[in-house]
Please model this.
Amino acid sequence: MARAPRSRGADVTIRDIADELGMSHATVSRALHDHAAISAPTKARVREAAQRLGYIPNSGARALRQVQSRLIGVIFPDIENDFYSAAMARLSRAMREAHYELVLAVSHDDAGIEAQHVRSLREARVAGVIIAPSTHLNAATAQLLAPLPVVQLLRCHPLLAGPVVGVDEQLGIARGVVYLASRGHRRIAYVGGPVALSTGLDRLAGYRDGLHKAGIAFDESRVMLGDPRPEFGQAAIERLMQADEPPTAVLFAGSQLALGGLAAIRRLALQVPGDLAVLGYHDPAWFAVWGSGISAIRLPVDALATHAGATLLAMLQGGPLPAELGPAKLEPRLVLRGSTRTQGPYGMATAD
Model:
């Protein structure tokens, strides 16, 4: 009697691979264990089928398969980023209170590394995953995640079905641009991440929206997009300030970009805010102590992490999510410090 086809995303067994290839269970098992009696072409066919079907070796005892895991996987692109390190700290506290432990994996925004982490988390039998997906997350990775409760944090990817817990990026950036314009700035530069990221796309849209609301024409030469790391932030400022009409204000759409950009500002001996007003994104602790303080569009990181964790815990219980959980788009807020103060007579900074 023919076996019923297995739904994609369900746990795949050696028997499923054997049926797919028309091989015996023993041959497939030996191929997966690199047995010397199995030819290289057969091993290659078996491994290709295993990957295609989403086979995950069971590294735990079979008797424990029905025991609910107390592990939660967390996949972030960059733990050096202040937002993700703060989110991880909050998630760790929340999950520990619920008697779960976190397993952190860092993707470095690399789809290949991300895929390896997902396979490892599946092998570890995690109960669920909180992920800030990479730009190029692939279909095979999405398939491996499909059987699990998944919450997307800050970023979203169309291949993933899990609820998204994020912020209104466009609103936050637009408010920042309008504020800078209200302080008299007309040449406002933007330094952000790639638009292939959902966050990068939304933040750039917010910049354009803010310019439109302030009655300022969009100038592509004042937009610098690249890897959201300090090195790009530094290079962006050096290039922007070489223009015949350099910006009088800059909005860094990421704290790591701001870190590099401020290093360039210091190297160029520019005064903040006299020569260049600076507005950052997120609000790491060091923003408050750099010079007279860096104004920021603050993300509610604790609220985001708390909501994401509570949503995943509710998903693990099964059934419909409570109305107050699930997808969410929280509002950032503007925190004003010395880096955006208006310049008065004789170069004196005036209060906002």
